[in-house]
């Protein structure tokens, strides 16, 4: 619902045992755009008995100041018990609400036939579904039927969208419905099929997750291996560099040693010559 120059708001109104209702139903008041509103629902129609009627109404119009006016655009969405959308009604233009017209909506919102189709279709497809149904109270019958329809709709959903809790509740309720007299072998088979499909999907997801984990580990090992290889290469390169330096030093040392040996020989020879010369000089005859 949108008020002029106001942000959109959503309001949800639930009606229990709707198919059993006869008189008009009014929702609690809700606030939008600083104004109070409520919804009127006519289960058996307003002026048209074969249609559901829906109206958006201004709350407490008699308490508003003289000459009040409001504009709003709004839509109605009808949902089943399981949350499945049956239909959507939307006003294309902004509607004016005032003292003379304090409500706006649809007299022929939804054909009642549409709302009964699911129940009628169910009994047409499974004519013996309730032949042994034990409870006689109409409210109890309606409550059981709502539970049954809710699970039928739920099991029509994709298996992966159903939680463990939903499947567990469905299994528990089917046992209770069977004990009440419903013949639901066909629905039990469907439930088992959904559970198996869900387990199959879960197994597939687990395999995919396992493969994903393995790929991550493999990539990590590749990185570690590459890092290790780089380290080994670096170490090997360092060793080769050290060896080259060592060989160079050895060569240098060998050359230096030879040079030193030669210098030692020359130096020793010079010393020897000096000694010889000194000896010669000492014994030379002088006139």
Ordered list of secondary-structure elements with their pairings:
Elements: E1 2-3, E2 25-26, E3 30-32, E4 35-42, E5 51-58, E6 69-73, E7 75-79, E8 85-90, E9 95-98, E10 103-111, H1 112-125, H2 138-154, H3 164-179, H4 185-282
Antiparallel strand pairs: 1-6, 2-4, 3-4, 4-5, 5-10, 6-9, 7-8
Helix pairs in contact: 2-3, 3-4
The pLDDT mean sits at 75
**Biggest sheet statistics:** 5 strands, antiparallel
The CATH homologous superfamily of the largest domain is called Apoptosis, Tumor Necrosis Factor Receptor Associated Protein 2, Chain A
Taken together, the total number of domains comes to 2
* Percent strand: 15-25%
Structural class: alpha+beta
Low-confidence blocks of residues:
265-287
**Molecular shape:** elongated
- Compute the number of strand runs: 10
Question: What is the CATH first-level class name of the largest domain?
Answer: Mainly Beta
Keywords: Coiled coil
Protein name: MATH domain-containing protein
Pfam families: MATH_2
Organism: Thlaspi arvense (Field penny-cress)
């Amino acid at each position: 619902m949108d008020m002029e120059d106001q942000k959109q708001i959503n309001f949800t109104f639930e009606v229990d045992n709707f198919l059993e209702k006869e008189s008009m139903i009014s929702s609690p008041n809700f606030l939008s755009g600083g104004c109070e509103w409520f919804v009127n629902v006519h289960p058996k129609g307003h002026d048209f008995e074969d249609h559901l009627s829906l109206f958006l109404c201004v709350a407490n119009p008699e308490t508003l100041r003289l000459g009040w006016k409001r504009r709003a655009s709004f839509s109605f969405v009808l949902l089943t018990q399981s949350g499945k959308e049956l239909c959507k009604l939307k006003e294309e233009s902004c509607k004016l609400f005032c003292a003379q017209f304090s409500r706006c909506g649809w007299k022929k919102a939804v054909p009642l036939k549409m709302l009964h189709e699911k129940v009628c279709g169910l009994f047409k497809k499974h004519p013996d579904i309730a032949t042994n149904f034990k409870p006689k109270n109409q409210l109890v019958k309606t409550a059981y039927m709502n539970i049954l329809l809710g699970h039928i709709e739920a099991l029509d959903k994709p298996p992966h969208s159903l939680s463990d809790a939903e499947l567990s509740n469905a299994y528990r309720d089917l046992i209770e419905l069977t004990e009440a007299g419903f013949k639901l072998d066909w629905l039990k088979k469907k439930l088992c099929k959904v559970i198996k499909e869900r387990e199959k999907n879960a197994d597939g997801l687990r395999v995919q997750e396992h493969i994903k984990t393995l790929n991550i580990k493999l990539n990590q090992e590749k990185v570690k291996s590459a890092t290790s290889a780089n380290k080994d290469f670096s170490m090997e390169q360092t060793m080769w560099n050290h060896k080259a330096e060592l060989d160079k030093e050895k060569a240098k040392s060998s050359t230096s040693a030879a040079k030193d040996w030669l210098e030692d020989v020359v130096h020793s020879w010079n010393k020897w010559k000096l000694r010889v010369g000194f000896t010669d000089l000492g014994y030379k005859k002088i006139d």
